[in-house]
Design a protein that fits this description.
- The protein is of the alpha/beta class.
- 41% of the residues lie in helices and 14% in strands.
- The protein contains 15 helices and 12 strands.
- The chain has a 9-stranded parallel sheet. It has a 3-stranded antiparallel sheet with strand order 4-6-5.
- Helix 2 (30-38) crosses helix 3 (42-56), helix 6 (155-171) packs parallel to helix 8 (209-231) and helix 13 packs parallel to helix 15 (359-372).
- The protein is globular, with a radius of gyration of 20 Å.
């Protein structure tokens, strides 16, 4: 039922046989990539960031190369987002600077707003599936809340995502494949009611809807792992789930514990985007960190902690004024993680916030850099 049979090896990756040194990662989102490309000289813009990364102590870059079932590289499967091979340039620059680069993909997301299919490129696979005349493709695409998504239950979707993973691993000198927290976008049964109804009609003892969805996501995750390792066992497969372990499984249908126990991921980077004074004490940084250590600890999966550089200088009802009155939240969290033997580093979301010239961001960054000296 868990659909994790492809990941039964208790030590499937070189990463797990030899624990890495402490990692310091940074995410570069498609929004930041867009700005670099629009600057007119992507190479120079990316080199400037790479120099900052190296000086700061960054070791690993997570680059958003498939944000909406499109590609920041020369793909034969997805249409090009930029019309130029951004990934090839980024890999060369990162490796020259001594940085590892992980190709970050969103497997299912096509659009998150403005659900009009007419706004998509006609080269988009979602557009083609919706307007071809093949009956088997009729429900490869699902709609929810003005968003457009690939249907996780469909075999054509799974095979397409796997082909994208293989394309990246074979054609680029990347150091890993990375996926984040976009899985099923809703618990609403209307999202995939036709697919689920067809499944129940064809199956003697069908799973309930939640288990059906969990199984679909598990199947993709385990298959991505197998596809990566078949090409190169040293490539790292990492996932960055949301902070709420229960919500991951019950709302997004991402069973992180099963992935860790089944050795289907090399590294998890939960998004612990909370300070020390969060109103819900369960999510105060050290409390939520403890839960993730418990989850990852018994499986041998590498645990790296995602930190919220983007919150510096912000105020919300749940966060209070912690992020606008203190400049040491991220440095304290970094130090806690680097001193903890169960944690193998940190990653910051995202690069533009981490390296912002705003006064509070600058002060925060200098404090983090002080902690990183001698630790990475």
């Amino acid at each position: 039922m868990l659909a994790l049979s492809g990941c039964s090896d208790p030590e499937p990756a070189a990463l797990k046989k030899e624990k890495p040194g402490k990692i310091c990662g940074v995410w570069i989102s498609y929004i930041e990539l867009d700005k670099m490309v629009q600057s007119g000289n992507f190479s120079d813009a990316f080199k400037a960031y790479a120099e900052k990364f190296k000086d700061f102590g960054i070791t690993d870059v997570f680059l958003h190369v498939v944000p909406f079932c499109d590609a920041a590289y020369n793909s034969k499967i997805y249409h090009s987002r930029y019309g130029t091979d951004v990934l090839k340039t980024a890999v060369e620059i990162c490796h020259k600077a001594g940085l590892k680069l992980h190709a970050w993909i969103n497997p299912y997301r096509v659009k998150t707003s403005n659900g009009s299919i007419d706004s998509l490129s006609k080269d988009s696979i979602a557009y083609r599936w919706l307007f071809d005349d093949k009956a088997e493709n009729d429900d490869n695409i699902c709609f929810y809340n003005d968003g457009i998504y690939l249907n996780p239950a469909k075999s054509e979707v799974k095979q397409t995502v796997l082909e994208v993973v293989r394309e990246l691993c074979r054609n680029y000198d990347i150091d890993g494949i990375h996926i984040d927290d976009y899985f099923y976008p809703t618990t609403d049964s209307a999202f995939d009611n036709k697919t689920y109804a067809d499944y129940t009609k064809e199956t003697e003892n069908p799973l309930g809807l939640s288990s059906f969805r969990i199984c679909n996501v598990n199947s993709l995750v385990s298959s991505i792992y197998t596809a990566i390792k078949f090409i190169d066992k040293d490539l790292v497969f990492s996932v960055s789930p949301a902070a709420d372990i229960d919500k991951n499984k019950n709302t997004f249908f991402a069973d992180i514990a099963a992935w860790c126990e089944g050795s289907c991921v090399d590294m998890i980077i939960p998004q612990l985007y909370f300070g020390f004074c969060y109103k819900n004490e369960d999510f105060c940084f050290e409390n939520i960190l403890s839960r993730w250590k418990d989850l990852a600890g018994s499986s041998g999966t590498i645990l790296v902690i995602g930190l919220a550089a983007y919150k510096t200088g912000t105020e919300t009802a749940a966060d209070g004024d912690e992020w606008i009155t203190r400049d040491d939240i991220l440095s304290r969290e970094t130090e806690i993680c680097l001193k903890d033997k169960a944690v193998f580093g940190v990653a910051f979301y995202s690069c533009s916030s981490l390296f912002s010239d705003m006064e509070l961001n600058t002060a925060s960054r200098e404090k983090i850099k002080t902690v990183l000296k001698g630790k990475i």
